[in-house]
Design goal:
Blueprint: E1 2-5, H1 10-22, E2 27-30, H2 41-44, E3 54-56, E4 62-64, H3 66-76, H4 87-116, H5 127-147, H6 161-172, H7 185-195
Parallel strand pairs: 1-2
Antiparallel strand pairs: 1-3, 3-4
Amino acid sequence: MKIYETKTAPNPRRVRMFLAEKGVKVEFVQVDIQKGENLTPEFKAKNPMGKVPVLELDDGTCISETVAICRYFEELYPKHLLMGRTGVERAQTEMWQRWLEMYFLLPTGMCFQHTTGYFKDRMNPVKEWGEDCGKAAESFFTRLDNHLEDKEFILGDYFSIADITALCTIDFNKVNNIRISPEQKNLKAWYDRVSARPSAKV
C-alpha cells in the first residue's frame, strides 16, 4: 500500500503521526499541490475531490479523507487504539474530532488560502474572509487552553487522534502568524508534552 501526500500540508501530517504512534510503516508518494499535481486526471481517478492524503491499497482500492484513512489503520492495527478504547471514549473522541476540524482546522486552512494567495491560480481569494477565519482559529487557542486546565491530553489521560489534529493545526497556524500566547499556560504545557512524542517529529 502507499499514501499520496504533500509533506508540508497538515492533513497528511495527521496521518503520518497516527501511523507513527501505531508503529506502522507505509510508502509515501509526494504530490506537489502548488503545481497542481493533485488536479490531474490520474490523481482525480484516485480521489475525485483532488485532495491529499489518499491511501491506495494493494488491490487498487483508494481511501481519501484523513480520518477515514486513520479509521482503516485503527481497524487493521487495534493493539494501540487512538480513536477511543470504550464506547464513551470513541464518542468523545469523535466529538472532539468534529469540533477541531470544523472550528479549528477548517478556519486555519481558509485563513491560509485566502490571505496568502497560495492557490490564487485556481480560486478567488477573499482577504477579509481569510482574516475572519484567522480570528476564529485564534479564538480556539483560548478554548483549548481553558479545556486543558486539569488535563494531560484533550481526552484527559488518554492520548488520541484529537491531540494529533490539535497539534498539527497549531503548528500549521505558524504560516498564519498565529501562535500560543504566553498567558495560555495550559495549552503550552500540553503542546510541549505532545511535541515531545516521537510521532510529532514526522
